[in-house]
Amino acid sequence: KSKSKSQFSECVVPSSPRRYSFYRRTNNVFGVYSFTLQLALLNFADWDDGASEPCSLTLKRKGFRDILDDIKVKVPEHRIKLNSVVTKISYSGEFILSLNNGEEHHYDHVIVTCSLGYLKKNLKQFFCPALDARKEEAISSLGFGNMMKVFLEYTRPWWPLDVDAIAPLQSNSPLAESFPVLQPLQWNNKILVAWVSGKGPSLISKLSDEELADGLTLHLRGALGDSTIPLPVKIFRHSWITDPLVGGSYSYLTPKSVKFVPDAFSRMAEPVVLEDRPILCFAGEHTHPTMYQTTIGAYESGEREALRITTHLLRT
């Protein structure tokens, strides 16, 4: 704890590349100067994505669509309702979900999977009655970052194929702070990916794809001294922090949560129980005690809550 941030990162690199990758990603969520104020060091002890050192788990080319198709294969199509925003969950007496189109749906059990950011923003009006103090304390104490990923696609790679990262250090571009490092995508050598954080997401959300492509290319050409670096042919990005259904990116332990709500992630997973029935359950990456920030953690938490409900139904 007595080490500076730079000393801490240096001591982590040799022994645990996966955890350093996590450190770098999480550090970027807050920007350099607010790191020690918002991120609890306990994250580095508790977080684990389930892979063995020095590996990490990734979707590669598969993508989420194939996974979702596999999950829903046994679910009748008419049971899946798309483009339906839940505006209120009422669970006193009858269990009612109210949608933004005016519809109301009745259920015996509900698994809430919305993001921590959405819960933070809509907590007071989303649940009726309000959640208990334990849950509200957990929601309030945990942090939710503003990370954005930007993918740059080129017709062919202009960088050496054996590099792990491109760090254009010498640049006066206004985008330099937002794009300190770009990494080739492991399963597509025509794509660079940048993790954008701090003031970056707000800055680049004001730019069109064309403006961002021009600005980034000037930044790279100036910093790397190569005027032949081409424009990307496509840019893929999504502003999670301004998305009203998400409100951020990764959950994390804050000093406040460690001090006052040390079991915050476990509290997030606690169901609302009525007469021994788990009527209102919670899933998502922010409800997993060790795999928070990951799709795997979100998936496992969904399985956990489905099992909780089916176990109850089998007992009754």
Automatic annotation (TrEMBL):
Originating organism: Heligmosomoides polygyrus (Parasitic roundworm)
Coiled-coil blocks: none
Domain (Amine oxidase) ranges: 52-309
Matches recorded under InterPro entries: Amino_oxidase, FAD/NAD-bd_sf, Flavin_monoamine_oxidase
GO molecular function: polyamine oxidase activity
Protein name: Amino_oxidase domain-containing protein
